[in-house]
C-alpha cells in the first residue's frame, strides 16, 4: 500500500518531509501541527542538496513536521516569507513563526533548534 506523503491527517506522525503546493497548504500544515520546520529549497541549489539528508533525518527522528517548499514553483510564497536565498529554514511553533535561518545548518544545530520547541 502506498501512502501520499503530501497530505497525511493532522494526527498522523510524519516520518518524511511534506511537499508544499501553495500558501493555503502551508498555512494548513502550520496551523494543524505543533512544530513545523519549513525548508525553502531549489533543485539547482548545491547547499540545498547537502541539507536534504539532514532534513529527512530530522523528519524521521523528531516530533517536528518537516515541510519542503520549492522556491521556483512557489515564488510568491517564498516572497511572502522574505526568502531571499536558499536554503532558508523557518520554524513554526503553535502556528507562529519563531525562527528563520538562511543557509545550511549542521544536523546538531538544527536538531537543537527544533528541540527548543518540541519539549
UniProtKB/TrEMBL annotation:
Keywords, sorted A to Z: Disulfide bond, Electron transport, Redox-active center, Transport
Coiled coil feature spans: none
Stretch list, region Disordered: 1-20
Gene Ontology CC: one annotated term: cytoplasm
Domain of life: Archaea
Extent of Polar residues compositional bias: 1-14
UniProt GO MF annotations: protein-disulfide reductase activity
Family annotation (CDD domains): TRX_family
SUPFAM superfamilies (alphabetical): Thioredoxin-like
Domain Thioredoxin: 1-119
InterPro entries: Thioredoxin, Thioredoxin-like_sf, Thioredoxin_CS, Thioredoxin_domain
Name of the protein: Thioredoxin
Source organism per UniProt: Natronococcus jeotgali DSM 18795
Amino acid at each position: 500500500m502506498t501512502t501520499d506523503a503530501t497530505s497525511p491527517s493532522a494526527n498522523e506522525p510524519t516520518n518524511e518531509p511534506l511537499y508544499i503546493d501553495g500558501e493555503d497548504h502551508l498555512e494548513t500544515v502550520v496551523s494543524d501541527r505543533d512544530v513545523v520546520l519549513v525548508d525553502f529549497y531549489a533543485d539547482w541549489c548545491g547547499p540545498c542538496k547537502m541539507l536534504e539528508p539532514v532534513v529527512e533525518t530530522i523528519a524521521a527522528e523528531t516530533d517536528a513536521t518537516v515541510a519542503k517548499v520549492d522556491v521556483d514553483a512557489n515564488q510568491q510564497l517564498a516572497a511572502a516569507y522574505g526568502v531571499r536565498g536558499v536554503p532558508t529554514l523557518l520554524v513554526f511553533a503553535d502556528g507562529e513563526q519563531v525562527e528563520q535561518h538562511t543557509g545550511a545548518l549542521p544536523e546538531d544545530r538544527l536538531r537543537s533548534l527544533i528541540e527548543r520547541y518540541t519539549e
